[in-house]
Amino acid sequence: MQWETVIGLEVHVQLATRSKIFSGASTAFGAEPNTQACAVDLGLPGVLPVLNEQAVAMAVQFGLAVHADIAEVSVFDRKNYFYPDLPKGYQTSQMYHPIVGPGDVEITLEDGSTKRIRIHHAHLEEDAGKSLHEDFHGMTGIDLNRAGTPLLEIVSEPDMRSAKEAAAYLKAIHSIVTYLGISDGNMAEGSMRCDVNVSVRPKGQEAFGTRAEIKNVNSFRFVERAIAFEVERQIELIEDGGSVVQETRLFDPDRDETRSMRTKEEANDYRYFPCPDLLPVVLDQAYLDHLRGQLPELPADKRERFQNELGLSAYDANVISASRDMAEFFEAVHSECGDAKQAANWVQGELSGALNRENLSIANSPISARQLGELISRVLDDTINGKAAKEVFQALWNGQGESADEVIDAKGLKQVTDTGAIEAMIDQVIADSPAQVAQYRDSEPEKRGKMIGYFVGQVMKASRGTANPQQVNGLLKEKLDALL
Ligand code: ADP
Ligand code: MG
Question: What are the residue boundaries of the Asn/Gln amidotransferase domain, all occurrences included (predicted)?
Fold first, then answer.
């Protein structure tokens, strides 16, 4: 039996407003527990919520970015349940009239192919507080700083068919919200997390299978691992004659498995009703047009432009456009050196490698886009060879020089392209290596190409790495073959 996986995601994005969605308390991350929860966040008697206009604007911008219908009228509802981190006894959310209607997102897979994932809707709501289990023996601590932080919950249609597609979708959402600047997208700090709905069905069957919902997964990698485990669990269960029950599960990254949290029978009855303290949100066309006018170039548009106008491969265009900071850095490097392919190679290769090693973001790169662009220009105009370029890169990275030219001068890295000078070095190396020359002469012609490496190495060494490698190669071959 062949099985097909079906996945739908509910992504929670903390919006980057400075104050909360219904109060003036700060949303800054990392403060001492309970120093940023005011009477409104605690639901004390007599207080009234005031909607944060910025949260509305951010939700609308997201909607516009995913080609969604924006509701002219949206309504906040109370979702009633009891939990210690929810002192009001209800969460203010949007159940029946969400602010963002159906839309879609394009995802790119590793092979460069694309697919459209439909978004069912996105709604505004408030985050709850946090239960603290460490440091409290036999008790649970509650930190309500997070209570009232604005969330945008983005609900997809069940359009994904593999863990890879789900991760690509989550990455696409991450790119969009960080491009828009409506969230910092910091998954480690919980700024973005998702509930993963997974089911399986026999290949060819139209009806969906029963799904399990894995709550609060907070990294791209965990999404893939949770799905992989869950798919295997469900298939095994069905093949053994059992059936999947609709339930909420938790992913345990330490044991790489999902475990049941509660089944449908234990689910809450939320008794939604419109919040009497908040007016419906009414938006007019002028307001939407105003926000539309402020949208930046979005990741999908950048990707397309990088491919069509700059000639990058689908893969490169996708990797570079995924982060706005990286895309802008790349564009600055490109405008300095004029070669998109080289700019993309250096940004994804040498630069990303160095940033990863030192755990730095591209915004904090010790080497500027201008410096990198100049460095690439010096390779393109043959001032230095590839090996020297890496040395210049390292020097600029370490702050040993203001510009590529300065480093090249200071270290004497200018490439030797003078044929006479290179020939002199080659003659010397040949004279110093009689045994290797004899070996070269006596070996099969098809093996000689490989053997030439030894001589190239010696000449490069003699030039302290500055000889032009193509010239060295060509001239060496001529001279050695002349000895045959
Ligand atoms: P509910 O109303 O119970 O929350 P929804 O219909 O809103 O359920 O779906 C919630 C999420 O689950 C959506 O992202 C949706 O795409 C996904 N989903 C629904 N049915 C399935 C299924 N059979 N398999 C996988 N995902 C599903
Ligand atoms: Mg739901």
Answer: 328-480
